[in-house]
Specification:
Number of strands: 25
Number of helices: 4
Largest sheet: 8 strands, antiparallel
Order of helices and strands: HEEHEEEEEEEEEEEEEEEHEHEEEEEEE
Shape: globular
Strand content: 35-45%
Distance between the termini: 39 Å
């Protein structure tokens, strides 16, 4: 399933180097094997409709005495959104188009053309902003959806005069766990925002603009990259994907192009995913009796395995205080939960 290419610059490896390389490869393959994907990527085209009857972040910032052009805030979704094996009701969202669904330090959990997006012009009145960040929660075909739109925004430049040609895109978080990224209109002759073959530019010679997800444990990522109509799908460890600047969209999607991260379901996932799990423990972690699993493994946040077994009560008195991850394994998949050892 997995294939890797490693470039070794040294001509001759010592015996110790070969041993370390073998250990590294073994660990890498092991961790990728336990990072089960719960999403697949679909693409399709819809009619792009700007949000109406919305709430305005630009106006909210202005009314609260904050800078209107950017934001970084915790936002209520209005429902429980299932993301991997967690269910969240709020998200930390930034104007750079990145989302955090977990308090675990690491990569962002959702990238939606991450860049230095700004509204670039002050709201005309206290009731309306032409350049805006718009959001709302509503039902679509009976399913709750949180929608947020970057409405006529531009990439911040060293001078505001170079950031006047706007772009629109949206992110939808569905109550069934799906995530949609939807592109709006962008003038193809406007090279202040996008250059074919390079992507959404931040400054001359560099580009940002990734579309992808990272699980709460920071050990699995799925990204849609390269040419939008002939993409490269990147899947695996976030460190190996995001560090090498391979995730950018390099050709311009047409208006209404949707990249959907579709959540996969299984009977076992339905059994375990949305049940409450102890998230603060002292010396003993008791796995609830209604959880189905054949084995548990506990890791620290460096990915080091600390404990494994099948008991329902796990003694943790020898562990230091801090955050840990427990993975429950059954015949179908692996389900991860974080907890705090006090």
């Amino acid at each position: 399933m997995w294939s890797f290419i490693f470039v070794i610059k040294s001509i001759k490896l010592s015996k110790m180097s070969k041993q370390l390389t073998f250990i590294f490869l073994t660990m890498f393959q092991y961790y990728t094997s336990i990072a089960q994907s719960e999403y697949k990527i679909d693409t399709f085209t819809v009619q792009y409709d700007t949000l109406t009857d919305y709430k305005s972040i630009a106006l909210e910032n202005l009314n609260e005495g904050e800078f209107y052009a950017v934001f970084n805030r915790e936002m209520e979704l209005g429902f429980n959104f299932p993301f991997f094996n967690t269910a969240i009701d709020k998200a930390d969202i930034q104007s750079d188009a990145v989302f955090s669904f977990s308090d675990i330090r690491g990569w962002f959990n959702l990238y939606a053309l991450d860049n230095s997006w700004h509204t670039c012009s002050e709201p005309e009145t206290l009731e309306y902003a032409r350049n805006d960040y718009r959001y709302k929660t509503e039902k679509v075909n009976g399913i709750d959806v949180f929608k947020i739109e970057w409405h006529e925004v531009a990439i911040c430049k060293t001078t505001w005069e170079n950031a006047t040609k706007p772009f629109n895109f949206q992110v939808w978080l569905w109550g069934n766990g799906n995530i949609d990224f939807i592109t709006g209109y962008l003038n193809k002759t406007d090279t202040t925002i996008f250059k074919e073959g390079l992507g959404f530019i931040y400054e001359e010679g560099s580009s940002w603009g990734s579309v992808g997800i990272v699980n709460p444990e920071n050990d699995y990522a799925l990204f849609y990259s390269g040419k939008y109509d002939n993409p490269v799908i990147l899947e695996g460890f976030p460190d190996s994907i995001l560090y090498f600047n391979r995730t950018t969209i390099k050709s311009l999607p047409h208006e209404g192009f949707v990249i959907r991260f579709k959540k996969q379901t299984s009977s076992t996932s339905d059994v375990n995913s949305h049940k409450p799990f102890p998230n603060v423990v002292r010396d003993i972690l008791s796995i609830p009796s209604d959880f189905k699993y054949s084995e548990y493994r506990i890791y620290d946040f460096s990915g080091k395995e600390l404990l494994k077994g099948s008991d329902s009560e796990i003694h943790l008195s020898h562990l230091s205080s801090g955050y840990y991850v427990i993975k429950l394994r059954d015949g179908v998949g692996i389900y991860s939960y974080k907890f705090l050892k006090q």
